[in-house]
Amino acid sequence: MLQKASLVKQISITVNKEIGSLDRMAGYMADRGINIEAIACYEIERENKAKIMFVVEDTARAVDALRAKGIKPVEEKEVIMVELDNKPGALKTVTNLLAHKDVNIRYVYGTGNSATTPVRVILATSNNEKAYVSLKKAATA
């Protein structure tokens, strides 16, 4: 069920919570020909802001594009991307493995596809290196 695990860079930005904020960010990526591979966005209610976290195929170009548009700060963080079979129980394989390795999942988000293509799930954990090694080993087993 677990096909692949890799360490990737996640970009995070905080923007004003207003109509069109996500559209503008997506446009900056599209204008540079940068594919967004996974994305999560949520509002920060008390601050009237929104947080956008995403993984792209070319982190350096994406960061440059955002900074060129005056978006600051642009944060980069190492996270784990896993590819899973698109079937019931696939995510449980990951969560069970990490729980048994005593690794806490801080947050998770994913991208769904058709039933015939893998699902990509992004994880940030209390120990990304330990989680990555464990997941990579399980994927190759």
Q: What oligomeric state do these chains adopt? A: single chain
Poorly predicted regions are none
Strand content: 35-45%
Number of domains: 2
Mean pLDDT: 94
End-to-end CA span: 11 Å
In total, the number of strands is 6
CATH class of the largest domain, please?
Alpha Beta
Classify the helix fraction into a percent range.
25-40%
Largest sheet: 6 strands, antiparallel
In short:
With 141 residues, the protein is α+β, with helices and mostly antiparallel strands. 32% of the residues lie in helices and 40% in strands.
Task: Describe the secondary-structure layout.
Elements: E1 2-16, H1 21-31, E2 36-44, E3 49-56, H2 59-68, E4 74-84, H3 90-100, E5 105-111, E6 119-125, H4 128-140
Antiparallel strand pairs: 1-3, 1-4, 2-3, 4-6, 5-6
Keywords:
4 helices; 32% helix; alpha+beta; 2 domains; Alpha-Beta Plaits; 141 residues; single chain
Task: Describe the protein.
The protein is α+β, with helices and mostly antiparallel strands. 32% of the residues lie in helices and 40% in strands. The longest helix has 13 residues.
